[in-house]
């Protein structure tokens, strides 16, 4: 419900001194048909920035997480373009994910089990993804419908660790 700049300021403060490239989109109206935005924005970003294709992560909070569920997790074409998808304060919306492709991102859910946006659907979504063979992580807290500092720092630590591992793998291949 807030402005992209405010979201970025909050997330950047949790991302550490040298955050990865962080880009935030303005909020879409929940009634707006915005399915497909994330893959379109990724293609536009590639035109402007040199992106390490093996290390692109998407993070969505609340409605942004629901949007990522629809745009990435449930989109067999978009799914392999991401190394990880982080859904904060939310879970699945209404679509079932595709069978796990050969290159599939890790899916991380961050939320409070007592928060209805998270608790109703995230554990079920995580179980469904695990059954399909996806790598799924849950970072749960008791801070309500928020981006808690401790958990978000852990998210960025997880992303940094994965980037380091992916770069090491790429060096061994190349």
Query: Could you estimate the helical fraction of the residues in percent?
Result: 40-55%
Strand order in the largest sheet: 1-2-3-4
- How many individual helices? 6
Q: What would you call the shape? A: globular
Task: Describe the overall structure.
This protein has 174 residues and is of the alpha/beta class. It is 43% helix and 12% strand. Helix 3 (63-73) links the parallel strand 1 (57-61) and strand 2 (84-88). The radius of gyration is 15 Å and the shape is globular.
Topology:
Layout: H1 4-15, H2 37-48, E1 57-61, H3 63-73, E2 84-88, E3 106-111, H4 116-119, H5 122-131, E4 136-140, H6 149-173
Parallel strand pairs: 1-2, 2-3, 3-4
Core attributes:
174 residues, alpha/beta, four-stranded parallel β-sheet, 6 helices, 4 strands
